[in-house]
Amino acid sequence: MLRTRLRRPGAALGTAIAALAAGGLVAVAFAGCGIVTPGPVSTVGEVDFDRPLAIPPLADSTVDAAGTRVFTLDAQAGTTEFEPGEASGTWGFNGSYLGPTLVAELGEHIRVDVTNSLDEPTTVHWHGMHLPPEMDGGPHQMVAPDASWSPEWDIDQQAATLWYHPHPHGETEDHVARGLAGMFLLHDEHERSLGLPGEYGVDDIPVIVQDTGLSAEGELETKQRGYAGGLGDELIVNGTRSPYLEVGDELVRLRLLNASTARSYAFAWSDDRPIELIATDGGLLEASVPLDQVRLSPGERAEVLLRVEPGERLVLQSQMTPEIAGLVGPVADTNGGSDAFDVLEVRAADTLEAAPDVPAQLNTIADFDEADVVTTRRFELSDSFEINGESMDMGRVDETVTVDTLERWVVENATQVPHSFHVHDVQFRIATIDGEAPPPELAGWKDTIFTEPETEYELLMRFEDYTDTDTPYMYHCHLLWHEDQGMMGQFAVVEPGQSATMTGGTHHEH
Ligand SMILES: [Cu+2]
Questions:
Q1: CATH of domain 56-193
Q2: What's the N-to-C CA distance of the chain in angstroms?
């Protein structure tokens, strides 16, 4: 925040006044709803770490005669005991909470047979995946109760930590909060050649972080709500309350996924050692980046490496501050911007498997040439859940993009409140933040960014391969309550000279 302020001399006083106004706005917005806005929370030092971290199972798959790898997901209701003997009603894929981890390889053709066993419609969106819009699982690909949907596509992007979750318009926060989410890991030859930790659940660990409201007895409760949305006052990881992870290798890879609906985290180690970031949403960085903390807003992923000594214990924490959150005053305090959490204790065995050194160069990321930009679009995020003054309309295509051309999307959060921005189908690069080059942790491939107040992000992206005049992709704020409130727009990718043809009557909802 301070960094941003310094770049914009003269803005500071206005910021302080506006922040008070925004705080007042939040208070007014919730007055009369009986909703108490959350205040600062800390669980540091209060977590017992007395349960082994659950590892989501790897999804079974079969390869059919045509060479297609086929997965099966069943969205279903069930019960989960976050504390033994205290059952909470939850939703999951192929189980009662979260879903299995799907794994696929660059070049594979895959299909996922999705069944909806819930008693209401939902969708499954493949977050971060490059794929045709009809396979995307957005709000136009609703799956009715007892119906099935079988999207298929080619895996045509580099190794990355992606994920899947529902995307029904107006209900996404609820469906994700109930437990519908899972990881989708992509591998490729290059990644394997690096010798990074890669044994799932052993030295390559999924870490799905969610905040939740649990009663003293351990039953799910309604969360308090800030402007950002529902904010739980404790964390679960992979659905496990109070988790520890035993490791037997001296080098461990943690795949951090913020699957929370509203809360952002600042992941850091309890002994203040640097957290070594190696990959962001869309894949490996060019080189490991040592950071004080890794900030992740909802939907963002980070892969980090941890080197441990025999017998040591340390704790993954979230150490958010208003400065890291990019929020000020009451906006920070009521939106998780001052909250601290113990997340996960790592326990190293007394004898550890040796691990090779990690290559200095992890990836090659060619920069886009801004001279190739064909179209510049602006997206202004409001504090009333609008983008460019419009609320989501399922029948309106907001932007029409010509396939295989370089686009510059300028996203400005002109407000005092937190938002984020996610674009379907592509991985993009951040060219500038308030006119300056991004820090190294934001210089790789991204599909979701946190948008700090009063900050402008210039993104470069190219939509390739899949054109469809009749089915759009989405861009939206990934604070899920904001998305549900209409903070979302639609874009069609078309051949040169084509126009989007979708009209209000063609929703493809069945
Ligand atoms: Cu938002």
A1: 2.60.40.420
A2: 45
Fold exhibited by the domain 370-494? Immunoglobulin-like (2.60.40)
| pLDDT mean over 42-62 | 97
Tokens of 444: 């790789």
Q: 19-36 pLDDT, tens per residue?
A: 434 444 444 344 334 445
Give me ligand 1 centre to Cα 14, in Å. 21
**Rounded to whole angstroms, how far apart are CA atoms 449 and 475?**
12
* Token output for 506: 């063609």
Return the CATH fold of 2-49+201-353.
Answer: Immunoglobulin-like (2.60.40)
pLDDT of 346 above 80: yes
Q: How many helices (H) and strands (E) does the chain have?
A: 7, 34
Residue 388 Cα, ligand 1 centroid: separation in angstroms?
A: 13
Instruction: Give how far Cα 4 sits from Cα of 8, 13, 300, 434, Å.
Output: 7, 14, 21, 8
Q: What angle do CA 154, 130, 173 make, to 5 degrees?
A: 120
Rg of the chain, C-alpha, whole Å: 22
Determine the distance separating the centroid of ligand 1 and the alpha carbon of 231, expressed in angstroms: 14
d(CA 282, CA 128): 7
Q: How far does the centroid of ligand 1 lie from the alpha carbon of residue 169, in Å?
A: 15
Q: What's the 138 CA to ligand 1 centre distance in angstroms?
A: 18
Averaged over 407-415, what is the pLDDT? 97
pTM of the entire structure? 0.92
Burial bucket for residue 442 (CB in 10 Å: 0-12, 13-18, 19+): middle
Q: How far is the CA of 262 from the centre of ligand 1 (A)?
A: 9
Residue located via tokens 């660059």: 106
